[in-house]
Protein 1
Amino acid sequence: MSNSAITGENFSNGKFVASATGVIRILVIVLLLSSAIIFLSNDTCPGTPTWYDWLFPVVSTIIACIVTMKYAAFVCGIAKGKPERYIKIDSVFSILESIVVIVVSVLTMSSCKSLSSVQKVPGPLGLAAGFLLAISTAALWVSWRRKQELLEEMTKIREKSALGPRTSIVV
């Protein structure tokens, strides 16, 4: 059994859903979509710049869709064949998405000076989603690296045992 096959076992059908990364990704998707819905269902915050009306809902919805597609790739087992490539691609995109969501959420929170508490909800939800996305990326990367290191150790042990028993010279 090859290293990529063993590592890919974690990304076979159904296993990713129950993993910590999978659960956190679902939470990120729910937070992003709910923050966009809350933002769009309320009146525009008075005295905000022109970009305020569209930036947050567009960014949070697009990133929620991208996270959903990457999640589906892991859940459907597409990443099982070459997990290293998918994990690296996912990690790069997830970190970029996390940074974008955090920046847009901070801009949204700092631009709205309204006293209405409902208009202040989407920003913190987006901020939480951005941080959770970064945490899930770290969890995915650490679990994959731990599995890789374990496989490397097992390979070294097999190679040593393949050499045969050591003989010692007693003087």
Protein 2
Amino acid sequence: MIILVPVYGSGDDAGNYTEVWLDDGQILLDRRRTKNVLMSWGRRWSWYLYACAGPAAAMKAAQAMWSAAR
């Protein structure tokens, strides 16, 4: 992943959603707000880190993602 781009549509495409720009040139569309995308990824990665590196690493990652989403 390279960047998350918040998009505010208008007309028939109204609403807040997020474009995820990948390093291979793909652009994926996530219909959630950027804040919610970050929080979702933070939860997933914190569980992964908990399993691999232990609870301290998972807590640190979750706190960092929560701070970024604010």
